[in-house]
Amino acid sequence: MDEKKLPSKEENYSDWYNQLVLRAELADYAPVRGCMVVRPYGWALWENIQKTLDRRFKETGHVNAAFPLFIPMSFLEKEKAHVEGFSPELAVVTHGGGTKLEEPLVVRPTSETIIGTMYAKWIQSYRDLPVLINQWCNVVRWEMRTRLFLRTLEFYWQEGHTAHATAKEAEEETLRMLNIYTDFAVNEAAVPVIPGKKSESEKFAGAVHSYTIEAMMGDTRALQSGTSHNLGQNFAKAFDMKYLDESNQLEYCWTTSWGLSTRFIGAIIMTHGDNQGLVLPPNLAPIQIVIVPIFRKDEEKTAVMEAVAKVEKMLTGLRVKVDDRMELTPGFKFNDWELRGVPLRIEIGPKDIQKNSVALARRDIPGREGKSFVPQEGLSKTVKTLLAEIQQNLLIKATCFRDEHIFEPNDYEEFKSVIADNGWAYAWWSPNIENETRIKEDTKATIRCYPIQDSEGEGTCIYSGEKTKQRAYFARAY
Questions:
Q1: Nearest to residue 130, comparing CAs of 178, 62, 176, 180?
Q2: Which CATH class is domain 13-272?
Q3: Which of 114, 139, 170, 217 shows a CA-CA span of 20 to 30 A to 270?
Q4: Cis bond leading into 130, ω under 30°?
């Protein structure tokens, strides 16, 4: 590990983020511009995200499958808005096996078209519905400006695709999956997201409407952290996805798609990280507890390592790492594991053995305030309680930070000041794509969402002055 200190968040947030991803060994730059290599520590974090989401998906009746990486160009061209929305980002294969292909193949940017083709083949009757399939895969979008985890040419995600008999069922599914993402973000990642509906200009290409979970990062910028789309019958009509209903009438299916990607690792980093490094939520951390043995003399080593082994055994069932690197000082190890964001550190030295105790250091509370000495007896229960407290504390801190940076401006001048001061504006809004574009040109802020849980009432649009019953969150975003 590089002993040089991280750049501070306050001085250069972008550099802090980039250096942290590299030095905590979450990911590295690949030889291909805009691509990344996810290193084992970063992949372990992604695996934990996968596990908790996959469990939620299966509990709601979804099953996993796999679909091809290559999609015929003609498939994307069947849905006009879809191909227009993705055309600038497509990677296209024109040759294979040394010869020119009869039809170019797109490296999937998303899989609605290939899956729509297969669903049209599989669905015949209302008895075949609903179809609830998810896949874990990689996709490629030819981004011009890239940043590790947040925006890369190739990234990893899950994409769910479902088909239903009615519009009502499709909308229920779309919101069900949004709620799953919200539950995951809040209760597993301790990221307090705002679930809401996207504006017309911000919705997914080819969707009737899109929903999102929006999170505030440590620099107050917004990050779209997961999306759920009601596709209506757009893709069903494009791919002739029909079924015979109970009256023996042919009807088009109603479809949805939803996804959350490795971008969420960036959300965790930027929501909780500090100037010492990562701060990982215990529920997702690859290593929940690191045990650091401390001794100065060789004659102390045997007793300390025996105590370490005893404590490790007490903590069976938790994700524990014993740092037995003998060539490094305890202080170096402390800094190393703080950089990597391990939620809890256990220190065991000769004095701790004499007292039959251990020293605990919380990652979420730096310095002496986060340190305590506890008996070895009942340590498993103590540690589990403490991990739950850390998890909850991270959510509380992130929620307070978010709420302190959301403002309700009274007029457009105040709105511009809020955005200029790196805040979010929660304002009355009369939907208008042209006005939305002007605001983006003025302030670089976009509508993040119309919140699902919005209070009733009526107000004056922050831009047009028209009466409206809708409010929106505006912010600069990644």
A1: 62
A2: alpha beta
A3: 139
A4: yes
